[in-house]
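Revision sheet: structure tokens.
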Amino acid sequence: MKRPLLIIFLVLVIDQVVKLYVKTHFVLGEEHRFASWFIIHFTENNGMAYGMQFSGQYGKIFLSVFRIAAVAAIGWYLRDLVKNNAHPGLITSISLIFAGALGNILDSAFYGLIFSESTYELARLFPPGGGYASFLHGKVVDMLYFPVIEGHFPAWVPFWGGEEFIFFRPVFNCSDSAITIGVLLILIFQRKFYPRKVVEAKVDNSVSNGDSESPQNI
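Predicted:
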């Protein structure tokens, strides 16, 4: 059980340290370029991946509760894998997914309570007037932006001809990275992680025992 606990701990520490730093040192929308393909761009996600969200306050609560239930299910599955001595690679992958999902839940659950808004000024930790949102209504902090390829679609491309395109456009965080790595490892090494059980054919002793008809008796 030491390996999954260590992975979960490291992912959560790295994720939360980076988020806390960005939240308290960047104004919403601020970015620092370290290279043309590596940018720290502070944004906040109010819902699911790529900014999708359910409308209204109840939609946010539903999403947060769903996330908590999903993390609980993943945690139960991870416990079962460890208990049954599953493939170490599978345990590592599920640990990454669990830690990543838990890291984003912490944002949704508590960041609204402990931080002020990041719009136009740096967020303050534990502001005197309270946070910007109630429990389970916080926003997930994203900052990693890798526009690896930037350019324009050729003029002959229907609908998008001449328009700008960027690959990779989404802004994400360390928790998202952990989830992605865990899923990719499972997809790449699924045959090793989930080996098919080879069922060995058993010798039919009924012939020698006289329990069934043999070719000689027909």
